[in-house]
Write a sequence for this structure.
């Protein structure tokens, strides 16, 4: 019997194995990688075929296998390379193979599976139907055919509240039967084509000389490329649909359909300019060419100061890879950077690019995937999800701003794009190129050890100097009587820059208007009911009232008129976010045109791109935002940068706090003075003596790395160890704590005496209670990650729903 090993696409940890199904004769073509519909637990679900083979009756031991119902696609979805990568990543991140394979599909599933109810003819006299409510549902379905719950509720609104119970009862007694309908979730777009199916001879012209409209269409089709025109083009030529229909009926033309693959960035135009590579750029490109020629894996770390032309190196390498007929993936950390990178690449590869990120619709992402699969595009640009585009011959993976935290997925499976990129590069035998002005210490350490080849670019294009950075001690500002969020030197910089008709970027990595709301009578801080953290005040706009929002639980509450604890009306807003800073800028510099870019202003698909385009066109003087304005942007007229609360990350209980502070200062400062003159930067801080701040001011990466690595070695933190964070969660505080305590005891017993295995905890998470769930953290530091992964697997932690496993966590919060 022909059987298939199938992983079902259900995001349940306990379903972490393949199930065996029989393959019907009509599906005998099935092979590894196909998506199929299978019966599972009384439902019709999607599954992934991992293997197909013959099994004897003896092997099956008289087990009655359920058959595969149908295929999802017209061809295999998963390539062998995709399955190999998914298998390795599932093993590494301790999740099910199905969970990892879901990442290789846009929207994690290309299907929408819905339940419909159908009336059974043999149950028309059932005793339940003597009751009016049950009878009404039965008669509706008998008349209208199978319908879903929403349709039934809409047709019988008087039964809305009781409907779930009614349907359950009728299904239980087989008066109704359930049918599971699966449909593709993407809305494919098609266009009509008209194709000439004859030779346009003199005789045909003679026969149609009195049918002028039809003869005109025949001549248009004969002159068209491949004798084919779209209906839109035919209508533009003022030929009617009736004329097309007459020709089709006469057998002289055919009307066909062709799928239109949407390109969300198809209208982006860019002009290619003659570029002469700098000496450092040329050296970097030549260093990577041998690995390309060998068709072999090699990892490179391109460490180039801000403005040194890393993007041009990416383009040069992409050009070489495309000339070899192989594909390229270009990753950016933020959707905000996608537009700028697309513009740069469009100048060289105008019709060879697809873009993948979460703000695109499912249909747009599916169309992009089809373009790649059909060979219509060979360069994939996007955020971390672009890694999972089904490219079959990747020659180069570029990771711009490789140090960025956004490359880490914060929900299961908690993968890091760098790990995925490296494994894909090994599987495809391709070049991995990590680029940054401030590489992560892990990547820099690996480059120093020789695991990556280190390439450096120390000069800006045109030998422009790095920006002149000035530090302002906000403690001194306060002593001098300035209680504003902005220092006087920053105000002066704004005024001077605007006087020259130049632009500024101001970064405050905290959105909202006020960071907490407190009663001045009793000291009560208004907190989130789900996690206990202070709610942030967001000002109302466009007639909408203001609100208090939790940035962790994503819940909002109305602003109280009085203190919920003591009833006092003396409520005051404390702290500052981007909204308040925007208001203050309008007060201090009334003439300034300010545009804000943070999560609250970039909810729509192209919001980032539109904001940056307006700023680039100089419709605004100041771009104000969170860290999304801090990296990658290259805007010619920006000569000044202000960084508010540059050292705020130093107060977080995280071993990477200093690294984040240094990187934020260096990256944000690097936006200034990239084209014409030396940029000027003001950094506001309360910790001017800290080495991260001092090295950031000096743009001294090596100096910072040396000091930070000494501390990391002493504390056995990455890059000298690997981390595993275990988050125990329960609505019962004691249950969460005791589970963590038991794991620590088992760990210490298993690794007794091994100094390369350390465990810390359990300790309450920084957000100790989130959405009503208590959270405790156990942190493992290890010199042998595979041994810890095996131990956790033995403990069955990868199957538990109350424990979140995070390999290489990016934050301790």
């Amino acid at each position: 019997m022909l059987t298939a090993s199938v992983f079902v696409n259900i995001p349940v940890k306990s379903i972490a194995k393949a199930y065996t199904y029989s393959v019907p004769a009509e599906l005998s073509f099935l092979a590894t990688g196909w998506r199929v519909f299978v019966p599972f637990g009384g439902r019709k679900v999607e599954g992934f075929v991992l293997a197909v083979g013959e099994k004897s009756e003896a092997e099956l031991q008289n087990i009655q296998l359920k058959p595969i119902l149908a295929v999802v696609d017209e061809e295999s979805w998963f390539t062998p390379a995709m399955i190999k990568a998914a298998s390795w990543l599932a093993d590494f991140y301790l999740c099910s193979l199905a969970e990892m394979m879901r990442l290789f599909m846009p929207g994690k599933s290309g299907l929408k599976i819905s339940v419909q109810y159908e009336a059974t003819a043999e149950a028309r006299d059932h005793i339940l139907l003597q009751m009016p409510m049950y009878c009404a549902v039965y008669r509706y379905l008998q008349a209208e055919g199978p319908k879903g719950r929403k349709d039934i509720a809409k047709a019988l609104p008087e039964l809305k509240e009781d409907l779930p119970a009614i349907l359950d009862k009728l299904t239980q007694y087989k008066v109704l039967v359930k049918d599971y309908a699966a449909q593709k979730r993407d809305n494919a777009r098609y266009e009509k084509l008209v194709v000439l199916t004859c030779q346009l001879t003199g005789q045909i012209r003679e026969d149609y000389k009195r049918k002028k409209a039809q003869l005109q269409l025949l001549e248009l089709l004969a002159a068209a490329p491949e004798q084919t025109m779209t209906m839109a083009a035919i209508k533009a030529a003022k030929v009617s649909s009736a004329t097309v229909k007459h020709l089709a009926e006469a057998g002289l033309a055919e009307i066909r359909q062709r799928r239109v693959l949407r390109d969300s960035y198809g209208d982006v135009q860019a002009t290619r300019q003659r570029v002469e590579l700098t000496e450092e750029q040329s050296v970097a490109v030549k260093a990577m060419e041998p690995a390309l020629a060998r068709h072999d894996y090699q990892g490179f770390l391109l460490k180039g100061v801000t403005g040194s032309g890393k993007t041009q190196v990416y383009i040069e390498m992409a050009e070489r890879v495309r000339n070899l007929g192989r594909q390229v993936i270009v990753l950016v950390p933020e959707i905000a950077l996608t537009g700028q990178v697309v513009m740069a690449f469009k100048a060289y590869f105008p019709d060879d690019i697809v873009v993948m990120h979460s703000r695109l619709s499912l249909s747009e992402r599916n169309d992009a995937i089809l373009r790649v699969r059909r060979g219509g595009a060979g360069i994939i640009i996007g955020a971390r999800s672009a890694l999972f585009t089904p490219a079959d011959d990747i020659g180069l993976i570029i990771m711009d701003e490789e140090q960025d935290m956004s490359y880490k997925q914060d929900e299961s499976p908690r993968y890091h794009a760098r790990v995925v990129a490296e494994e894909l590069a090994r599987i495809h035998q391709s070049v991995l190129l990590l680029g940054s002005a401030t590489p992560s210490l892990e990547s820099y350490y690996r480059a120093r050890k020789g695991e990556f080849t280190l390439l450096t670019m120390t000069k800006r294009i045109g030998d422009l100097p790095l920006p002149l950075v000035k530090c302002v001690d906000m403690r001194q500002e306060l002593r001098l009587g300035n209680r504003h969020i902005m220092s006087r030197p920053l105000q002066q910089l704004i005024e001077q820059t605007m006087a020259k008709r130049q632009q500024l970027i101001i970064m405050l990595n905290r959105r909202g208007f006020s960071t907490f709301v407190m009663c001045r009578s009793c000291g009560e801080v208004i907190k989130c009911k789900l996690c206990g953290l202070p709610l942030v005040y967001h000002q109302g706009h466009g007639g909408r009232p203001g609100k208090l929002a939790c940035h962790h639980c994503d819940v909002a509450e109305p602003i109280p008129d009085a203190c919920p604890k003591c009833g006092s009306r003396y409520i005051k807003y404390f702290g500052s976010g981007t909204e308040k800073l925007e208001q203050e800028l309008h007060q201090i510099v009334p003439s300034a045109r300010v545009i804000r870019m943070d999560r609250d202003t970039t909810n729509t698909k192209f919001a980032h791109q539109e904001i940056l385009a307006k700023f680039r066109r100089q419709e605004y003087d100041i771009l104000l935002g969170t860290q999304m304005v801090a990296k990658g942007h290259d805007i010619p007229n920006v000569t000044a940068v202000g960084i508010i609360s540059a050292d705020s990350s130093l107060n977080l209980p995280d071993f990477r706090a200093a690294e984040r502070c240094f990187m934020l200062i260096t990256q944000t400062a690097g936006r200034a003075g990239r084209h014409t003159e030396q940029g000027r930067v003001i950094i506001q801080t309360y910790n001017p003596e800290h080495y991260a701040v001092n090295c950031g001011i000096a743009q001294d990466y090596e100096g910072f790395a040396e000091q930070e690595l000494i501390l990391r070695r002493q504390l056995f933190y990455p890059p000298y160890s690997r981390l595993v964070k275990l988050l125990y969660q329960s609505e019962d505080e004691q249950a969460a704590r005791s589970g963590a305590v038991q794991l620590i005891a088992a760990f210490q017993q298993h690794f007794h005496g091994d100094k390369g295995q350390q465990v810390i905890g359990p300790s309450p998470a920084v957000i100790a209670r989130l959405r009503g769930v208590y959270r405790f953290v156990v942190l493992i530091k290890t010199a042998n990650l595979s041994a810890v992964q095996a131990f956790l697997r033995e403990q069955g932690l990868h199957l538990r729903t109350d424990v979140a496993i995070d390999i290489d966590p990016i934050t301790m919060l």
Remarks:
- The mean pLDDT is 87.
- The longest strand covers residues 757-770.
- DSSP finds 25 helices and 32 strands in the chain.
- The radius of gyration is 31 Å.
